[in-house]
Batch of 2 targets.
Target 1
Amino acid sequence: MMRTDAQLKQDIEKDLSWGSGGITCLPRPTGAHGRSTSQRWFMLRIASVVAFLLAFGAVREAYADAGDFTLTLSAGTGWQASSPTGRIPTNLMVSPGVELLGHFLRLDIGLVADLPDIENRQFNIEVRPSLVAELPVVPIYFRVTAGLAGLAHGPVAVAFGPSVGVRAGLGFVSLLGEIGYIPVVESGNFVSILELRLGVAFGIDRADRDDRRVVAE
């Protein structure tokens, strides 16, 4: 059956159209690797939850051979050295920890939340697992942090870096001061951040706590 020129022209216009009532076309990619922004954000949220669960599992596995427990409350602020430069918001951190090798090595799981003391900055929540090594004689310790930032509003970023601090106390309470270089990798951008922290740490003697539990039972 022969088709008229008008029909052929109409078929060509259908073939050249893109999603305008003609043929159905494959959707265009909406982001890197064909994933939309919402899809990438959802995947990063899942990754952050998985990382937290793995860290929590590591603490549970270490419980049997662990020493004393600690609880550190601290406040921090600092300076963003990468453009745009400026002071970063003050943040509060709660860090439960467990000693792995006597008093020389400790695993902390820090939960950080920003305070609204700087305008035009989004509220930020971070999870900061870290390993702390304390020197046996002088009250100096070293910390290596690897965590996730931007958990409140995104984009989720990786925060990592070393810190050094001093710690002095009496009994189960001690004061600490710490300075660290905690850069953040966000959407492929490397942001340098210097951070200063001041806080108080409480020690929980596991042996005494277990003895009290046995007496209670």
Target 2
Amino acid sequence: MRWSWLRVAFCGLMFPASLWAQDPPADCQGTETFQFEVQASLDGGATWTSNSVTLCMLPGNSVDFAVRTLMTVTAGETQGWSFSLKQSAIWSQYYGGGISVTGVTIEETDTETVQNGGLPDVNSLIIRPEGYTQGVLIDSDTGLTLPPVTGFVTSRACYHLTAPRYFGTYLTTLEFTHDLGNPPIRSVITQDGRSNLPCARNLNLYVMLGFCRPQSNPGCTLPGSVESTAMAAGRGATTGEEPLPADLQALMDFFRQWAGETVVGFRLGDAALGLAQLSLSGSALSYSTLLPRLPPLRETLGSLLRRGTRNFTG
């Protein structure tokens, strides 16, 4: 039963970029069935703001602030979702400063209790140079799904922003895309084995230098977060890179051969999701094709899930 649900739940989320080249999700108009949203908090998570936030700072100063992602689904039963959340601060290359993700977590979010009060079977949270990605499969055993929801909090994150050196107003964006990671992680919501494209409520962050009084900010702390310099399995983090198990390395090699190109930066979380999404999908790389060539793969992912390594964040 586990593998049949993996087959339908993660079909088509992570193929070579050339197969999924497309524009970012369109802006939400208010009536769409599938919606992603990003919000920011400048008071440590006491209040959250959508669409547009203004930071009053002094040139060269730094601030930490909180971000969370949300999902709204008005119909159907959701099996899982994934997204790329990408930051952009074009001004940093000309005037200094910049923005980066320092930690991500699902603790104290709705994702943490999505499976009848417990963790999802697979949760991949990975900090990337230009943002972070998430991939979730709710239940790989019995096919438990999520009914329609509004404002379902999928993740929380901390960001560090350093202001440019000169007075002015500078725009920074946080936007859902399809292009972070290698292979790229698409922003989709999965129902009945089909990947549905959501609309997006992205965030504009205006950094104002010299036009308003610098504000006090309590910063950002996350329980059980995955830091940008760490790789974690489950809820604990360990620094540095972790070698892939031999059979997951074999999956990578097979994927490269199938894709016809070299895939670099392929981490443990990517490999685990790749097994679920590629080898068990209805694509040309089918379960029946892959399994005879790589017998250990099925047992490997099964053992990872059984021993509790379900939050693949490395």
